[in-house]
Amino acid sequence: MATLLSSGIVRMTTTTTTFVLKSAGLFKAKGFGGGSSSLFHPHHRQHMDKRRTLKAVTNSNSFSSSSNTNRAKKKATTSDDVEKRQRMTHMAKVRASFSPSSSSSSTEEKMFTVQHNLESLSDKIFCNRSLPMKSIRSVGFDMDYTLAMYKPETFERLVYTKTIAKLVSHYGYPKEILKSFQFDETYMVRGLVIDKKRGNVLKMDRHNYVKVVVHGFKAVSTEERLMTYCDSSKVGTSFTGNEYQAMDTLFALAEAYLFCQLVEMKDLVMIDEKKKKNKEYEKLTNVSYHQMFDEIRKSVDLCHRDGSLKTEVAKDPAKYIVPDESLKELLTTLKTSGRSVFLLTNSLFDYTNVVMNFLISGKTGEEKNLDWLEYFDSVFVGSMKPNFFTQDNNIIFEVDAKTYMLKNTDSGGPLTPIGGSDIDHVSAPSSSKPGDGENTYDSKVYQGGSYVHLMDSLGISRGSDVLYVGDHIFGDILRSKKTLGWRTMLIVPEMDHELEVLEETREEGVLDELKQLRERRDELDYKLQKIIFEEKRQKEKEKMAKTSEEMKMVEQLEKDFETAKLEHRKKTKEYHERFHWVWGALMKSGYQNSRFAHQVERYACVYTSKVSNMLRYSPEASFRAFSDTMPHDDSSP
Predict the structure, then answer these.
(1) Are residues 338 and 486 in the same domain?
(2) Is 144 annotated as a binding residue?
(3) What is the Cα–Cα distance from 64 to 69, expressed in whole angstroms?
Protein backbone atom coordinates (compact mmCIF):
# COMPACT_ATOMS: atom_id res chain seq x y z
CA MET A 1 0.00 0.00 0.00
CA ALA A 2 0.96 3.64 -0.13
CA THR A 3 2.38 4.71 3.21
CA LEU A 4 2.53 8.34 4.35
CA LEU A 5 5.43 8.68 6.76
CA SER A 6 5.89 11.38 9.40
CA SER A 7 8.14 13.33 7.05
CA GLY A 8 5.20 13.66 4.74
CA ILE A 9 6.94 11.82 1.91
CA VAL A 10 5.06 8.88 0.48
CA ARG A 11 6.66 5.52 0.06
CA MET A 12 4.96 3.07 -2.28
CA THR A 13 4.97 -0.37 -0.69
CA THR A 14 2.00 -1.88 -2.44
CA THR A 15 2.18 -5.59 -3.05
CA THR A 16 -0.10 -6.47 -5.90
CA THR A 17 -1.01 -9.86 -7.17
CA THR A 18 -0.71 -11.81 -10.36
CA PHE A 19 -2.76 -10.33 -13.15
CA VAL A 20 -4.83 -12.76 -15.17
CA LEU A 21 -5.73 -11.24 -18.50
CA LYS A 22 -9.30 -11.53 -19.56
CA SER A 23 -9.37 -13.24 -22.91
CA ALA A 24 -10.71 -10.96 -25.59
CA GLY A 25 -12.33 -12.02 -28.84
CA LEU A 26 -12.65 -10.18 -32.12
CA PHE A 27 -15.64 -7.99 -32.88
CA LYS A 28 -16.65 -7.86 -36.51
CA ALA A 29 -19.51 -5.63 -37.63
CA LYS A 30 -21.55 -6.12 -40.81
CA GLY A 31 -18.92 -8.14 -42.65
CA PHE A 32 -15.24 -7.44 -42.85
CA GLY A 33 -15.22 -5.98 -46.33
CA GLY A 34 -18.11 -3.54 -45.98
CA GLY A 35 -17.57 0.18 -45.67
CA SER A 36 -19.46 0.32 -42.40
CA SER A 37 -17.51 -2.46 -40.72
CA SER A 38 -14.89 -1.86 -38.09
CA LEU A 39 -12.39 -3.88 -36.12
CA PHE A 40 -12.84 -3.44 -32.42
CA HIS A 41 -11.97 -5.09 -29.18
CA PRO A 42 -15.39 -6.42 -28.07
CA HIS A 43 -15.49 -4.19 -25.00
CA HIS A 44 -14.95 -1.04 -27.06
CA ARG A 45 -18.46 -0.70 -28.40
CA GLN A 46 -19.95 -1.20 -24.94
CA HIS A 47 -18.56 2.05 -23.69
CA MET A 48 -17.34 4.18 -26.62
CA ASP A 49 -20.59 6.03 -27.34
CA LYS A 50 -21.45 6.74 -23.73
CA ARG A 51 -17.83 7.60 -22.96
CA ARG A 52 -17.81 10.35 -25.58
CA THR A 53 -20.49 12.20 -23.63
CA LEU A 54 -18.18 12.56 -20.66
CA LYS A 55 -16.25 15.78 -20.30
CA ALA A 56 -12.88 14.10 -20.27
CA VAL A 57 -10.62 16.97 -19.40
CA THR A 58 -11.46 19.71 -16.94
CA ASN A 59 -9.63 22.84 -15.91
CA SER A 60 -10.46 22.90 -12.22
CA ASN A 61 -9.75 25.61 -9.66
CA SER A 62 -7.90 23.43 -7.14
CA PHE A 63 -5.07 20.96 -7.36
CA SER A 64 -7.08 18.12 -5.91
CA SER A 65 -10.23 18.55 -7.96
CA SER A 66 -8.97 16.65 -10.98
CA SER A 67 -8.61 13.48 -8.94
CA ASN A 68 -11.92 13.99 -7.13
CA THR A 69 -14.11 14.93 -10.11
CA ASN A 70 -15.17 11.41 -10.94
CA ARG A 71 -15.51 9.89 -7.46
CA ALA A 72 -19.30 9.98 -7.61
CA LYS A 73 -20.54 6.79 -9.27
CA LYS A 74 -23.95 5.56 -10.24
CA LYS A 75 -25.06 2.33 -8.70
CA ALA A 76 -25.13 -0.42 -11.34
CA THR A 77 -28.01 -2.87 -11.39
CA THR A 78 -26.45 -5.62 -13.54
CA SER A 79 -22.98 -7.06 -14.08
CA ASP A 80 -22.87 -5.44 -17.54
CA ASP A 81 -23.67 -2.07 -16.00
CA VAL A 82 -20.86 -2.55 -13.50
CA GLU A 83 -18.41 -3.35 -16.27
CA LYS A 84 -19.47 -0.37 -18.37
CA ARG A 85 -19.35 1.94 -15.36
CA GLN A 86 -15.84 0.80 -14.47
CA ARG A 87 -14.62 1.37 -18.01
CA MET A 88 -16.14 4.83 -18.25
CA THR A 89 -14.94 5.79 -14.79
CA HIS A 90 -11.44 4.63 -15.67
CA MET A 91 -11.41 6.69 -18.85
CA ALA A 92 -12.81 9.79 -17.15
CA LYS A 93 -10.27 9.58 -14.34
CA VAL A 94 -7.38 9.22 -16.76
CA ARG A 95 -8.62 12.15 -18.83
CA ALA A 96 -9.13 14.28 -15.73
CA SER A 97 -5.64 13.41 -14.57
CA PHE A 98 -4.25 15.18 -17.63
CA SER A 99 -5.80 18.45 -16.48
CA PRO A 100 -3.44 20.58 -14.43
CA SER A 101 -5.17 22.84 -11.97
CA SER A 102 -4.34 25.93 -10.04
CA SER A 103 -4.64 26.67 -6.36
CA SER A 104 -6.46 29.63 -4.92
CA SER A 105 -3.80 30.10 -2.26
CA SER A 106 -1.16 32.78 -2.55
CA THR A 107 2.25 32.30 -4.12
CA GLU A 108 3.89 32.52 -0.72
CA GLU A 109 1.64 29.81 0.70
CA LYS A 110 2.37 27.53 -2.24
CA MET A 111 6.11 28.10 -2.06
CA PHE A 112 6.30 27.07 1.56
CA THR A 113 3.71 24.30 1.67
CA VAL A 114 5.35 21.46 3.56
CA GLN A 115 5.04 17.88 2.48
CA HIS A 116 2.72 16.69 5.26
CA ASN A 117 0.11 19.29 4.25
CA LEU A 118 -0.28 17.93 0.73
CA GLU A 119 -3.91 17.16 0.04
CA SER A 120 -3.61 13.81 -1.75
CA LEU A 121 -1.14 11.38 -3.20
CA SER A 122 -1.61 12.90 -6.66
CA ASP A 123 -0.12 16.19 -5.37
CA LYS A 124 3.12 14.56 -4.33
CA ILE A 125 6.57 14.25 -5.81
CA PHE A 126 8.00 10.77 -5.21
CA CYS A 127 11.70 10.25 -4.63
CA ASN A 128 13.97 7.44 -5.86
CA ARG A 129 17.26 9.22 -5.23
CA SER A 130 17.67 11.97 -2.66
CA LEU A 131 17.51 15.41 -4.25
CA PRO A 132 18.32 18.56 -2.23
CA MET A 133 16.90 21.43 -4.28
CA LYS A 134 19.39 23.80 -2.63
CA SER A 135 22.06 22.24 -4.84
CA ILE A 136 20.13 22.95 -8.06
CA ARG A 137 21.16 26.11 -9.93
CA SER A 138 19.10 25.59 -13.10
CA VAL A 139 15.78 23.88 -13.85
CA GLY A 140 14.90 22.83 -17.40
CA PHE A 141 11.71 21.55 -18.99
CA ASP A 142 10.73 19.53 -22.01
CA MET A 143 7.62 20.92 -23.70
CA ASP A 144 5.42 18.17 -25.15
CA TYR A 145 3.64 16.09 -22.48
CA THR A 146 5.59 17.98 -19.80
CA LEU A 147 4.69 21.66 -19.84
CA ALA A 148 2.08 21.00 -22.52
CA MET A 149 -0.37 18.20 -21.72
CA TYR A 150 -2.24 17.05 -24.80
CA LYS A 151 -5.83 15.88 -24.70
CA PRO A 152 -5.72 12.20 -25.72
CA GLU A 153 -9.27 12.15 -27.08
CA THR A 154 -8.43 14.88 -29.61
CA PHE A 155 -4.67 14.97 -30.14
CA GLU A 156 -4.04 11.22 -30.25
CA ARG A 157 -7.09 10.84 -32.47
CA LEU A 158 -5.59 13.47 -34.80
CA VAL A 159 -2.31 11.54 -34.98
CA TYR A 160 -4.26 8.34 -35.58
CA THR A 161 -6.40 9.66 -38.45
CA LYS A 162 -3.49 11.43 -40.15
CA THR A 163 -1.39 8.27 -39.92
CA ILE A 164 -4.11 6.14 -41.50
CA ALA A 165 -4.31 8.59 -44.39
CA LYS A 166 -0.56 8.26 -44.95
CA LEU A 167 -0.73 4.46 -44.85
CA VAL A 168 -3.31 4.50 -47.62
CA SER A 169 -1.73 7.20 -49.80
CA HIS A 170 1.94 6.29 -49.39
CA TYR A 171 1.99 2.55 -48.70
CA GLY A 172 -1.08 1.16 -50.42
CA TYR A 173 -3.11 -0.07 -47.46
CA PRO A 174 -6.82 -0.76 -48.12
CA LYS A 175 -8.93 2.39 -48.40
CA GLU A 176 -11.49 0.65 -46.21
CA ILE A 177 -9.50 1.52 -43.09
CA LEU A 178 -10.19 5.23 -43.67
CA LYS A 179 -13.82 4.62 -42.73
CA SER A 180 -13.91 1.37 -40.78
CA PHE A 181 -11.16 1.94 -38.24
CA GLN A 182 -12.08 3.85 -35.10
CA PHE A 183 -9.79 4.88 -32.29
CA ASP A 184 -10.08 4.12 -28.57
CA GLU A 185 -7.60 6.30 -26.70
CA THR A 186 -8.12 4.38 -23.44
CA TYR A 187 -6.92 0.97 -24.64
CA MET A 188 -3.14 1.36 -24.76
CA VAL A 189 -0.86 2.30 -21.87
CA ARG A 190 2.79 3.20 -21.59
CA GLY A 191 5.44 0.66 -20.68
CA LEU A 192 4.34 -2.06 -23.09
CA VAL A 193 6.61 -3.63 -25.70
CA ILE A 194 5.61 -4.43 -29.27
CA ASP A 195 6.88 -7.66 -30.80
CA LYS A 196 7.06 -6.56 -34.43
CA LYS A 197 7.92 -10.03 -35.71
CA ARG A 198 4.91 -11.82 -34.21
CA GLY A 199 2.37 -8.99 -34.13
CA ASN A 200 2.05 -9.10 -30.35
CA VAL A 201 1.94 -6.54 -27.54
CA LEU A 202 3.67 -7.53 -24.30
CA LYS A 203 3.58 -6.47 -20.68
CA MET A 204 6.46 -7.65 -18.54
CA ASP A 205 7.84 -7.25 -15.06
CA ARG A 206 11.13 -5.75 -13.94
CA HIS A 207 12.94 -9.00 -14.72
CA ASN A 208 11.66 -8.87 -18.32
CA TYR A 209 9.43 -11.85 -17.58
CA VAL A 210 6.46 -11.57 -19.93
CA LYS A 211 3.19 -11.69 -17.97
CA VAL A 212 0.61 -10.59 -20.55
CA VAL A 213 0.54 -11.09 -24.32
CA VAL A 214 -2.09 -9.79 -26.73
CA HIS A 215 -2.16 -10.57 -30.44
CA GLY A 216 -4.24 -7.87 -32.08
CA PHE A 217 -6.88 -7.55 -29.37
CA LYS A 218 -6.98 -11.24 -28.45
CA ALA A 219 -5.24 -12.65 -25.39
CA VAL A 220 -2.57 -15.22 -26.12
CA SER A 221 -2.95 -18.44 -24.11
CA THR A 222 -0.70 -19.14 -21.15
CA GLU A 223 0.82 -22.12 -22.95
CA GLU A 224 1.72 -20.08 -26.03
CA ARG A 225 3.04 -17.22 -23.90
CA LEU A 226 5.35 -19.51 -21.95
CA MET A 227 6.53 -21.33 -25.04
CA THR A 228 7.20 -18.12 -27.00
CA TYR A 229 8.61 -15.68 -24.45
CA CYS A 230 9.72 -17.53 -21.35
CA ASP A 231 12.58 -19.47 -22.92
CA SER A 232 15.49 -17.03 -23.03
CA SER A 233 17.39 -19.26 -25.44
CA LYS A 234 14.73 -18.44 -28.06
CA VAL A 235 13.96 -14.76 -27.53
CA GLY A 236 16.77 -13.47 -25.32
CA THR A 237 16.12 -11.48 -22.19
CA SER A 238 16.41 -7.80 -23.11
CA PHE A 239 13.61 -7.33 -25.69
CA THR A 240 15.56 -4.40 -27.14
CA GLY A 241 16.57 -5.65 -30.59
CA ASN A 242 15.15 -4.60 -33.94
CA GLU A 243 12.23 -6.99 -33.48
CA TYR A 244 10.92 -5.04 -30.49
CA GLN A 245 9.65 -1.51 -29.93
CA ALA A 246 9.16 -0.10 -26.44
CA MET A 247 6.18 2.20 -25.89
CA ASP A 248 7.98 4.76 -23.77
CA THR A 249 5.98 7.89 -24.57
CA LEU A 250 2.35 8.92 -24.72
CA PHE A 251 2.91 9.79 -28.38
CA ALA A 252 3.31 6.05 -29.09
CA LEU A 253 -0.17 4.99 -27.95
CA ALA A 254 -2.04 5.85 -31.15
CA GLU A 255 0.38 4.02 -33.44
CA ALA A 256 0.36 0.96 -31.16
CA TYR A 257 -3.43 0.82 -31.25
CA LEU A 258 -3.41 1.13 -35.04
CA PHE A 259 -0.89 -1.70 -35.23
CA CYS A 260 -3.23 -3.99 -33.27
CA GLN A 261 -6.08 -3.17 -35.63
CA LEU A 262 -4.00 -3.93 -38.71
CA VAL A 263 -2.75 -7.19 -37.18
CA GLU A 264 -6.33 -8.36 -36.74
CA MET A 265 -7.29 -7.19 -40.21
CA LYS A 266 -4.35 -9.01 -41.78
CA ASP A 267 -5.17 -12.21 -39.88
CA LEU A 268 -8.76 -12.12 -41.14
CA VAL A 269 -7.65 -11.57 -44.71
CA MET A 270 -5.26 -14.52 -44.54
CA ILE A 271 -8.05 -16.96 -43.64
CA ASP A 272 -10.49 -15.62 -46.24
CA GLU A 273 -9.73 -16.97 -49.71
CA LYS A 274 -11.88 -14.36 -51.47
CA LYS A 275 -10.16 -11.47 -49.77
CA LYS A 276 -6.73 -12.97 -50.37
CA LYS A 277 -7.44 -12.78 -54.10
CA ASN A 278 -8.94 -9.29 -53.89
CA LYS A 279 -6.48 -6.61 -55.04
CA GLU A 280 -7.87 -4.25 -52.39
CA TYR A 281 -6.22 -6.45 -49.75
CA GLU A 282 -3.08 -7.31 -51.70
CA LYS A 283 -0.97 -5.16 -49.41
CA LEU A 284 -2.08 -7.04 -46.30
CA THR A 285 -1.43 -10.46 -47.83
CA ASN A 286 2.15 -9.55 -48.69
CA VAL A 287 3.24 -7.40 -45.76
CA SER A 288 4.80 -8.87 -42.61
CA TYR A 289 3.91 -7.68 -39.12
CA HIS A 290 7.39 -6.21 -38.83
CA GLN A 291 7.10 -4.22 -42.05
CA MET A 292 3.60 -3.16 -41.11
CA PHE A 293 4.77 -1.60 -37.86
CA ASP A 294 7.72 0.11 -39.53
CA GLU A 295 5.39 1.65 -42.11
CA ILE A 296 3.09 2.91 -39.37
CA ARG A 297 6.13 4.52 -37.71
CA LYS A 298 7.22 6.10 -41.01
CA SER A 299 3.70 7.41 -41.58
CA VAL A 300 3.72 9.09 -38.16
CA ASP A 301 7.06 10.68 -39.01
CA LEU A 302 5.61 11.95 -42.29
CA CYS A 303 2.78 13.60 -40.37
CA HIS A 304 5.34 15.51 -38.32
CA ARG A 305 7.53 16.39 -41.28
CA ASP A 306 4.85 17.67 -43.64
CA GLY A 307 3.35 19.91 -40.97
CA SER A 308 -0.11 18.32 -41.02
CA LEU A 309 -0.18 17.82 -37.24
CA LYS A 310 1.19 21.17 -36.13
CA THR A 311 -1.05 22.98 -38.61
CA GLU A 312 -4.16 21.54 -36.98
CA VAL A 313 -2.93 22.29 -33.47
CA ALA A 314 -2.03 25.86 -34.46
CA LYS A 315 -5.57 26.44 -35.75
CA ASP A 316 -7.14 25.63 -32.39
CA PRO A 317 -4.67 24.94 -29.55
CA ALA A 318 -7.46 24.76 -26.97
CA LYS A 319 -8.90 21.75 -28.77
CA TYR A 320 -5.72 19.75 -28.32
CA ILE A 321 -3.82 21.20 -25.34
CA VAL A 322 -4.89 21.36 -21.70
CA PRO A 323 -4.55 24.93 -20.37
CA ASP A 324 -2.45 25.32 -17.24
CA GLU A 325 -3.00 28.53 -15.28
CA SER A 326 -0.30 27.58 -12.77
CA LEU A 327 2.55 27.48 -15.26
CA LYS A 328 3.46 31.17 -15.13
CA GLU A 329 3.53 31.04 -11.35
CA LEU A 330 5.77 27.98 -11.35
CA LEU A 331 8.30 29.52 -13.75
CA THR A 332 8.25 32.82 -11.86
CA THR A 333 8.75 31.04 -8.53
CA LEU A 334 11.79 29.20 -9.85
CA LYS A 335 13.34 32.36 -11.29
CA THR A 336 12.74 34.46 -8.19
CA SER A 337 14.41 31.72 -6.14
CA GLY A 338 17.63 32.59 -7.96
CA ARG A 339 17.68 29.72 -10.44
CA SER A 340 17.93 29.91 -14.20
CA VAL A 341 15.13 28.28 -16.18
CA PHE A 342 15.44 26.77 -19.66
CA LEU A 343 13.25 25.07 -22.25
CA LEU A 344 14.70 22.12 -24.18
CA THR A 345 12.43 20.57 -26.80
CA ASN A 346 12.65 18.65 -30.06
CA SER A 347 9.86 20.80 -31.52
CA LEU A 348 10.90 23.64 -33.83
CA PHE A 349 10.38 27.26 -32.88
CA ASP A 350 7.26 27.96 -34.94
CA TYR A 351 5.35 25.20 -33.17
CA THR A 352 6.95 25.96 -29.80
CA ASN A 353 5.79 29.56 -30.14
CA VAL A 354 2.20 28.41 -30.73
CA VAL A 355 2.17 26.06 -27.74
CA MET A 356 3.92 28.36 -25.27
CA ASN A 357 1.77 31.36 -26.20
CA PHE A 358 -1.32 29.30 -25.46
CA LEU A 359 0.06 27.96 -22.17
CA ILE A 360 1.47 31.22 -20.83
CA SER A 361 -1.08 33.78 -22.00
CA GLY A 362 -3.86 31.92 -23.82
CA LYS A 363 -3.00 33.82 -27.01
CA THR A 364 -3.50 32.21 -30.40
CA GLY A 365 -3.36 33.21 -34.07
CA GLU A 366 -2.49 36.84 -34.73
CA GLU A 367 -2.54 37.62 -31.00
CA LYS A 368 0.62 35.62 -30.38
CA ASN A 369 3.67 37.48 -29.12
CA LEU A 370 7.07 36.71 -27.63
CA ASP A 371 6.27 37.62 -24.03
CA TRP A 372 6.55 33.99 -22.95
CA LEU A 373 10.30 34.11 -23.59
CA GLU A 374 10.68 36.31 -20.52
CA TYR A 375 10.03 33.25 -18.35
CA PHE A 376 13.11 31.43 -19.68
CA ASP A 377 16.82 32.20 -19.62
CA SER A 378 17.54 29.91 -22.59
CA VAL A 379 15.34 28.17 -25.14
CA PHE A 380 16.69 25.32 -27.26
CA VAL A 381 14.36 24.01 -29.99
CA GLY A 382 14.88 21.28 -32.59
CA SER A 383 17.33 19.78 -30.13
CA MET A 384 17.33 16.24 -31.53
CA LYS A 385 17.29 14.57 -28.11
CA PRO A 386 18.74 12.17 -27.08
CA ASN A 387 21.71 13.05 -29.35
CA PHE A 388 21.70 16.47 -27.69
CA PHE A 389 23.00 14.81 -24.52
CA THR A 390 25.67 12.61 -26.10
CA GLN A 391 27.32 14.61 -28.91
CA ASP A 392 29.10 17.85 -28.12
CA ASN A 393 29.79 18.94 -31.71
CA ASN A 394 26.24 19.32 -33.01
CA ILE A 395 25.60 22.32 -35.25
CA ILE A 396 23.80 25.17 -33.53
CA PHE A 397 21.71 27.96 -35.05
CA GLU A 398 20.54 31.16 -33.45
CA VAL A 399 16.84 31.74 -34.08
CA ASP A 400 15.46 35.21 -34.71
CA ALA A 401 12.27 34.87 -32.69
CA LYS A 402 10.49 37.58 -34.70
CA THR A 403 11.26 36.42 -38.24
CA TYR A 404 11.94 32.70 -37.60
CA MET A 405 15.19 33.18 -39.53
CA LEU A 406 18.18 31.05 -38.62
CA LYS A 407 21.23 33.12 -37.88
CA ASN A 408 24.88 32.09 -37.65
CA THR A 409 24.76 31.20 -41.33
CA ASP A 410 26.42 32.78 -44.33
CA SER A 411 23.16 34.04 -45.77
CA GLY A 412 20.49 33.09 -43.26
CA GLY A 413 17.83 30.46 -43.75
CA PRO A 414 14.20 30.54 -42.62
CA LEU A 415 12.58 27.83 -40.55
CA THR A 416 9.73 26.03 -42.22
CA PRO A 417 6.56 27.96 -41.31
CA ILE A 418 3.45 26.25 -40.02
CA GLY A 419 1.54 24.92 -43.01
CA GLY A 420 4.71 24.32 -44.99
CA SER A 421 6.74 21.16 -45.48
CA ASP A 422 10.34 20.58 -44.49
CA ILE A 423 10.69 17.28 -46.34
CA ASP A 424 12.82 18.87 -49.04
CA HIS A 425 14.14 21.72 -46.90
CA VAL A 426 17.88 21.79 -46.33
CA SER A 427 19.22 24.10 -43.64
CA ALA A 428 22.04 26.47 -44.52
CA PRO A 429 25.49 25.59 -43.17
CA SER A 430 26.29 26.91 -39.75
CA SER A 431 29.15 27.48 -37.39
CA SER A 432 29.11 25.57 -34.09
CA LYS A 433 29.11 28.70 -31.91
CA PRO A 434 26.43 31.32 -31.26
CA GLY A 435 26.79 34.42 -33.41
CA ASP A 436 26.68 38.05 -32.43
CA GLY A 437 23.53 39.11 -34.29
CA GLU A 438 21.05 41.43 -32.59
CA ASN A 439 18.08 39.82 -30.92
CA THR A 440 15.28 41.51 -28.99
CA TYR A 441 15.43 38.77 -26.35
CA ASP A 442 19.22 38.66 -25.91
CA SER A 443 19.74 35.82 -28.37
CA LYS A 444 18.26 33.28 -26.00
CA VAL A 445 16.60 31.06 -28.66
CA TYR A 446 18.68 28.43 -30.43
CA GLN A 447 18.04 25.50 -32.72
CA GLY A 448 20.07 22.31 -32.48
CA GLY A 449 23.29 22.47 -30.53
CA SER A 450 24.28 20.26 -27.63
CA TYR A 451 24.50 20.19 -23.87
CA VAL A 452 27.78 22.12 -24.16
CA HIS A 453 26.04 25.14 -25.73
CA LEU A 454 23.16 24.96 -23.26
CA MET A 455 25.32 24.80 -20.16
CA ASP A 456 27.56 27.57 -21.49
CA SER A 457 24.51 29.78 -22.06
CA LEU A 458 23.48 29.20 -18.44
CA GLY A 459 26.96 29.60 -17.01
CA ILE A 460 26.92 26.11 -15.49
CA SER A 461 29.77 23.62 -15.65
CA ARG A 462 28.63 20.84 -13.31
CA GLY A 463 25.87 18.47 -14.39
CA SER A 464 24.57 17.86 -10.88
CA ASP A 465 23.59 21.55 -10.70
CA VAL A 466 20.87 20.95 -13.31
CA LEU A 467 17.39 19.47 -12.79
CA TYR A 468 15.69 18.44 -16.03
CA VAL A 469 11.96 17.70 -16.13
CA GLY A 470 10.60 15.52 -18.94
CA ASP A 471 8.21 12.72 -19.84
CA HIS A 472 10.38 10.43 -21.97
CA ILE A 473 12.37 7.78 -20.09
CA PHE A 474 15.03 7.45 -22.78
CA GLY A 475 14.80 10.73 -24.69
CA ASP A 476 14.73 12.98 -21.61
CA ILE A 477 15.75 11.10 -18.50
CA LEU A 478 18.20 8.25 -19.15
CA ARG A 479 20.73 10.06 -21.34
CA SER A 480 20.74 13.32 -19.41
CA LYS A 481 21.35 11.42 -16.18
CA LYS A 482 23.83 8.76 -17.32
CA THR A 483 25.86 10.93 -19.70
CA LEU A 484 25.80 14.32 -17.99
CA GLY A 485 24.94 13.60 -14.38
CA TRP A 486 21.89 15.87 -14.51
CA ARG A 487 19.27 15.37 -11.82
CA THR A 488 15.98 14.23 -13.32
CA MET A 489 12.25 14.52 -12.73
CA LEU A 490 9.94 12.28 -14.75
CA ILE A 491 6.39 13.39 -15.50
CA VAL A 492 3.94 10.47 -15.37
CA PRO A 493 0.39 11.81 -15.96
CA GLU A 494 -1.05 8.33 -15.52
CA MET A 495 -0.05 8.40 -11.86
CA ASP A 496 -3.12 10.42 -10.90
CA HIS A 497 -5.41 7.54 -11.83
CA GLU A 498 -3.05 4.92 -10.38
CA LEU A 499 -2.89 6.70 -7.04
CA GLU A 500 -6.62 7.25 -6.85
CA VAL A 501 -7.27 3.54 -7.35
CA LEU A 502 -4.61 2.71 -4.77
CA GLU A 503 -6.26 5.01 -2.24
CA GLU A 504 -9.70 3.54 -2.95
CA THR A 505 -8.53 -0.06 -2.64
CA ARG A 506 -6.66 0.74 0.57
CA GLU A 507 -9.74 2.36 2.10
CA GLU A 508 -11.88 -0.61 1.07
CA GLY A 509 -9.40 -3.10 2.53
CA VAL A 510 -8.82 -4.78 -0.83
CA LEU A 511 -5.06 -5.04 -0.42
CA ASP A 512 -5.38 -6.51 3.07
CA GLU A 513 -7.86 -9.06 1.76
CA LEU A 514 -5.53 -10.04 -1.09
CA LYS A 515 -2.66 -10.41 1.34
CA GLN A 516 -4.72 -12.68 3.60
CA LEU A 517 -5.87 -14.77 0.64
CA ARG A 518 -2.32 -15.16 -0.57
CA GLU A 519 -1.07 -16.16 2.87
CA ARG A 520 -3.91 -18.67 3.22
CA ARG A 521 -3.14 -20.17 -0.20
CA ASP A 522 0.60 -20.40 0.53
CA GLU A 523 0.00 -21.90 3.98
CA LEU A 524 -2.21 -24.65 2.56
CA ASP A 525 0.28 -25.34 -0.21
CA TYR A 526 3.10 -25.59 2.32
CA LYS A 527 1.16 -28.03 4.53
CA LEU A 528 0.09 -30.13 1.56
CA GLN A 529 3.58 -30.44 0.10
CA LYS A 530 5.06 -31.18 3.52
CA ILE A 531 2.60 -34.02 4.18
CA ILE A 532 3.14 -35.49 0.73
CA PHE A 533 6.91 -35.36 1.16
CA GLU A 534 6.79 -36.90 4.67
CA GLU A 535 4.50 -39.70 3.51
CA LYS A 536 6.77 -40.43 0.59
CA ARG A 537 9.81 -40.58 2.85
CA GLN A 538 8.05 -42.82 5.40
CA LYS A 539 6.79 -45.09 2.67
CA GLU A 540 10.29 -45.54 1.29
CA LYS A 541 11.70 -46.26 4.75
CA GLU A 542 9.00 -48.58 6.10
CA LYS A 543 7.20 -49.53 2.90
CA MET A 544 3.89 -48.60 4.48
CA ALA A 545 0.73 -47.86 2.55
CA LYS A 546 -1.39 -44.78 3.17
CA THR A 547 -4.19 -45.18 5.66
CA SER A 548 -7.67 -44.07 4.69
CA GLU A 549 -7.40 -41.29 7.27
CA GLU A 550 -4.18 -40.00 5.73
CA MET A 551 -5.70 -40.12 2.26
CA LYS A 552 -8.72 -38.15 3.42
CA MET A 553 -6.48 -35.53 5.02
CA VAL A 554 -4.49 -35.09 1.81
CA GLU A 555 -7.65 -34.92 -0.28
CA GLN A 556 -9.13 -32.27 2.00
CA LEU A 557 -5.94 -30.21 1.89
CA GLU A 558 -5.89 -30.45 -1.90
CA LYS A 559 -9.51 -29.33 -2.04
CA ASP A 560 -8.91 -26.43 0.36
CA PHE A 561 -5.80 -25.37 -1.53
CA GLU A 562 -7.61 -25.37 -4.87
CA THR A 563 -10.47 -23.32 -3.40
CA ALA A 564 -8.04 -20.80 -1.89
CA LYS A 565 -6.09 -20.57 -5.14
CA LEU A 566 -9.20 -19.89 -7.24
CA GLU A 567 -10.52 -17.29 -4.79
CA HIS A 568 -7.18 -15.51 -4.73
CA ARG A 569 -7.00 -15.56 -8.53
CA LYS A 570 -10.52 -14.15 -8.85
CA LYS A 571 -9.88 -11.30 -6.40
CA THR A 572 -6.52 -10.56 -8.01
CA LYS A 573 -8.12 -10.25 -11.44
CA GLU A 574 -10.77 -7.90 -10.08
CA TYR A 575 -8.11 -5.78 -8.39
CA HIS A 576 -5.99 -5.35 -11.53
CA GLU A 577 -8.98 -4.55 -13.69
CA ARG A 578 -9.73 -1.55 -11.49
CA PHE A 579 -6.59 0.04 -12.93
CA HIS A 580 -7.10 -1.08 -16.53
CA TRP A 581 -9.33 -3.84 -17.83
CA VAL A 582 -6.56 -5.31 -20.03
CA TRP A 583 -3.15 -4.23 -18.75
CA GLY A 584 -3.75 -3.75 -15.04
CA ALA A 585 -1.68 -1.35 -12.94
CA LEU A 586 0.91 0.75 -14.76
CA MET A 587 3.60 0.19 -12.15
CA LYS A 588 2.92 -3.48 -11.41
CA SER A 589 3.05 -6.74 -13.30
CA GLY A 590 1.84 -9.47 -11.02
CA TYR A 591 3.63 -9.17 -7.66
CA GLN A 592 6.65 -7.50 -9.23
CA ASN A 593 7.22 -3.94 -10.35
CA SER A 594 6.53 -3.60 -14.05
CA ARG A 595 9.24 -2.98 -16.62
CA PHE A 596 8.11 0.64 -16.77
CA ALA A 597 8.25 1.01 -12.98
CA HIS A 598 11.76 -0.46 -12.97
CA GLN A 599 12.87 2.15 -15.51
CA VAL A 600 11.27 4.95 -13.49
CA GLU A 601 13.01 3.75 -10.33
CA ARG A 602 16.35 3.32 -12.07
CA TYR A 603 16.60 6.52 -14.09
CA ALA A 604 14.36 9.18 -12.51
CA CYS A 605 15.63 10.89 -9.36
CA VAL A 606 12.06 11.98 -8.63
CA TYR A 607 8.74 11.53 -10.41
CA THR A 608 5.28 13.05 -10.26
CA SER A 609 2.08 13.30 -12.27
CA LYS A 610 2.36 16.93 -13.44
CA VAL A 611 4.80 19.85 -13.31
CA SER A 612 2.37 21.99 -11.30
CA ASN A 613 3.03 19.70 -8.33
CA MET A 614 6.37 21.49 -7.99
CA LEU A 615 4.42 24.45 -6.62
CA ARG A 616 3.41 22.29 -3.67
CA TYR A 617 6.97 22.36 -2.38
CA SER A 618 9.44 25.05 -1.41
CA PRO A 619 12.10 25.72 -4.07
CA GLU A 620 14.59 24.79 -1.34
CA ALA A 621 12.90 21.50 -0.40
CA SER A 622 14.89 18.31 0.01
CA PHE A 623 13.43 15.14 -1.47
CA ARG A 624 14.72 12.14 0.42
CA ALA A 625 14.74 8.54 -0.71
CA PHE A 626 14.03 5.70 1.70
CA SER A 627 16.36 2.90 2.66
CA ASP A 628 16.50 0.06 0.19
CA THR A 629 15.00 -3.16 1.49
CA MET A 630 15.33 -6.83 0.63
CA PRO A 631 12.83 -9.59 1.41
CA HIS A 632 14.69 -10.65 4.57
CA ASP A 633 14.51 -7.09 5.98
CA ASP A 634 10.78 -7.46 6.63
CA SER A 635 10.92 -11.07 7.78
CA SER A 636 9.75 -11.94 11.25
CA PRO A 637 12.20 -13.83 13.50
Answers:
(1) yes
(2) yes
(3) 9
